Task: inverse folding
């Protein structure tokens, strides 16, 4: 059915072509892309934009490692390439600044085995990264304290594909873009509580109901139980949350420093001299937003890794819950058994680098126009099959 054929008003209320639940980085990109494609969009957010995992400040845009190339890695690679232009367009349309920069990444090599693995990846990167980006080993860091060369007894990997962006800057730019678009209805402080796909109606927390042409669940970790319910599955089976804690330091660091990554610790210099440090990965937690000594340990490791930030004061501590689907890949596309309802969840640790491309896939699904190919492993059916085996 063509998009224009839908939209019969229900109870006097216009029916949006696309109803989106959740205004994190996923839902906001989807709203922008859908509106650019001419769809009318209602975006329903339980609290405020960025209340979920997207409200942090790390903004690392790091590729998967270049060996054993597959659909997921290819999808992310293309997304990381496109993002540069996507952000330039957003900035020029809105006048907002996202502090995007392709700074590359340094990874200290701490064992002989690590050195051998890194050496093998040089040719994988040449083959799979399109010749434009390099992956080298034994690069001498420009500065001995970024990272600490004593921390890299077997050399340093330097790859030039990684970038970083300011998460708050990007969210503001996406919201500014929506603010000037026609046919956008943003409803804050309202949650989707139920969906009746047969009627193409969603029930909202304010007691009202809203019809839709299509609906997308981009509501982070809370998408999984809703999707499972729509499919008649057991609630927690399709995915869950992994808590992460992060800290922001006022380090007066020069902008343009590469990301540093070592064994789960990220150090990211942002444009304003701030340095973001992350992250814990906690599968079990009582308080999704609290920070504790696990964060202090990460900060201590980061200070040893990059002595430049040894004395930099912490100006913000933050925690959020990353949405991780059962199959570990993002969950994207039609929800079996729920006609017209789509999933856009499970970006886990890489959403800021791929959400715009995930949005392109869903917009193509809705409009029938050509769009990027969604890897099979992203499909809801694939995740459900994995859940059934678990
Ligand atoms: C410490 C930490 C560091 C990270 N670092 C990086 C990084 O460097 N790079 C990177 O790419 N990613 C990073 N991530 C992961 C990234 O933040 C997440 O993958 C991403 O934010 C998920 O975005 P989302 O839009 O899918 O979900 P969310 O941002 O969680 O958004 C979901 C939204 O839906 C709303 N909502 C929930 N239920 C409903 C409902 N029923 N109705 C309406 N609205 C609802 C919520 O209020 C929320 O605003 C990090 C995460 C953490 C925690």
Result:
């Amino acid at each position: 059915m063509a998009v224009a054929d839908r939209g019969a008003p229900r109870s006097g209320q216009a029916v949006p072509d696309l109803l989106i639940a959740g205004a994190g980085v996923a839902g906001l990109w989807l709203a922008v892309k859908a509106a650019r494609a001419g769809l009318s969009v209602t975006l329903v957010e339980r609290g405020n934009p960025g209340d979920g995992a997207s409200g942090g400040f790390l903004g690392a845009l790091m590729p998967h490692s270049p060996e054993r190339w597959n659909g997921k890695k290819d999808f992310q690679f293309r997304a990381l390439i496109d993002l540069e232009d996507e952000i330039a367009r957003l900035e020029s349309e809105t006048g907002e600044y996202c502090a995007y920069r392709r700074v590359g990444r340094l990874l200290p090599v701490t064992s002989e085995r690590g050195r051998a693995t890194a050496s093998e990846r040089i040719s994988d990167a040449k083959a799979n990264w399109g010749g434009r980006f390099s992956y080298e080993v034994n690069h001498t860091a420009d500065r001995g304290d970024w990272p600490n060369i004593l921390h890299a007894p077997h050399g340093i990997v330097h790859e030039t594909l990684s970038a970083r962006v300011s998460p708050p800057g990007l969210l503001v730019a996406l919201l500014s873009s929506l603010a000037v678009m026609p046919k956008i209805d943003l409803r804050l402080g309202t949650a989707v509580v139920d969906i009746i796909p047969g009627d193409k109606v969603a029930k909202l927390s304010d007691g009202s109901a809203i019809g839709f042409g299509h609906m997308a669940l981009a509501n982070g970790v809370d998408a999984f139980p809703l999707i499972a319910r729509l499919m008649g599955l057991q609630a927690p089976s399709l995915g869950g949350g992994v808590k992460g804690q992060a800290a922001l330091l006022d380090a007066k660091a020069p902008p343009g420093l590469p990301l540093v990554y070592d064994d789960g610790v990220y150090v990211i210099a942002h444009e304003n001299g701030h340095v973001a440090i992350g992250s814990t990965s906690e599968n079990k937690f009582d308080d999704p937003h609290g920070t504790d000594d696990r964060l202090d340990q990460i900060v201590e490791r980061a200070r040893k890794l990059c002595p430049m930030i040894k004395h930099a004061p912490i100006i913000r501590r933050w925690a959020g819950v990353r949405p991780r689907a059962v199959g570990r890949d993002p969950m994207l596309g039609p929800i079996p058994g729920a006609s017209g309802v789509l999933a856009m969840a499970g970006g886990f640790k890489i959403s800021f680098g791929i959400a715009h491309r995930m949005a392109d896939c869903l917009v193509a699904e809705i409009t029938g126009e050509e769009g990027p190919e969604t890897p099979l492993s992203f499909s809801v059916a694939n995740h459900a099959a994995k859940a059934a085996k678990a």
